[in-house]
């Protein structure tokens, strides 16, 4: 609770106002399940092939 009170104070807010703002912010974010579902529905045909991605990662690693 001390950390939350400190964060609220840093913003010049009461703890209740800070918590209300944080809960509102959290409530509009998608859940992990929603993010995974959205990713699964994506059309990945236009993206790079897995082999190309792996080759690029290896190239970058070897250059550094």
Give an overview of the whole structure.
- The chain contains four helices and no strands.
- With 64 residues, the protein is mainly α.
- It has one domain (2-63).
- Helix 1 (2-10) crosses helix 2 (15-28).
- It starts with a helix and ends with a helix.
Summarize the structure.
The protein is mainly alpha-helical. It has helices spanning 2-10, 15-28, 32-41, 50-63. The chain is elongated, with a radius of gyration of 21 Å.
Task: Report low-confidence residues grouped into runs of 5 or more.
Answer: none
Protein structure class? mainly alpha
Distance between the termini: 44 Å
Helix amount: over 70%
What's the β-strand tally? 0
Report on the biggest sheet.
none
- The gross shape turns out to be elongated
Beta fraction of the residues?
under 5%
Number of domains: 1
List the helices and strands and how they pair.
Blueprint: H1 2-10, H2 15-28, H3 32-41, H4 50-63
Which key phrases capture this entry?
single chain; 4 helices; 64 residues; mainly alpha
């Amino acid at each position: 609770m001390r950390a939350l009170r400190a964060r609220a104070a840093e913003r010049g807010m009461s703890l209740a106002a800070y918590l209300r703002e944080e809960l509102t912010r959290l409530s509009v974010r998608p859940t992990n399940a929603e993010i995974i579902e959205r990713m699964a529905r994506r059309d990945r045909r236009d993206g790079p092939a897995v082999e190309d991605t792996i080759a690029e990662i290896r190239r970058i690693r070897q250059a550094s």
